[in-house]
Design a protein that fits this description.
Blueprint: H1 3-6, H2 8-11, H3 15-26, H4 30-52, H5 55-72, H6 82-100, H7 120-138, H8 142-152, H9 158-165, H10 169-186
Length: about 200
Amino acid sequence: MDSRTDDPALLARTAEGEACLVGRIAAGDRRAFEALYRAYFPRLGRFLQRMTRSSALIEEIVNDTLLAVWRKAGTFDGSSKVSTWIFAIAYRRACKALQAFDEPVDAGIDEREGVDADRPDWQFERLRLAHAVDAALAQLPLAQRTAFQLTLYHDMSQAEIADIMACPVNTIKTRLFHARKRLALLLDGQLEERP
């Protein structure tokens, strides 16, 4: 067997490799599942952060999602990318969790790494802008917010988002249009030019 196809961690780096991993998971390969888990845990965490804003809920949804991947790997038919299939599971689980979870959204400050330490004014401005964007995103309806973040933060196509959210592509286009329009209004005056 080719050493590249024998290493699950290497397979998790390409769409074709991910599909191979899902096939191996369906056959009970724990190493393949571990590789997929490691690849998707942080991606799903970032996706769900902007949806739920609850660390405990995020971890629970990610784990539930990946457990569903383990259990239902045999049902993956290859009609979409593995990422689309997994994000769709996470989206549905998050929607269910949010309906059952009636707690206020946490507006805590995120720790930002890699900020230019020599320029405190830039660091402050970056944090201010990040909070403004987060606050504006939080005001969008869940469907618009989800479509927008899948486009912006996860670089997914409208067709992939439509698969994840189980709706027509035109609905995604409309949601993105309204999200951009609303964000432009909410962020008007927030962006300042630096000298």
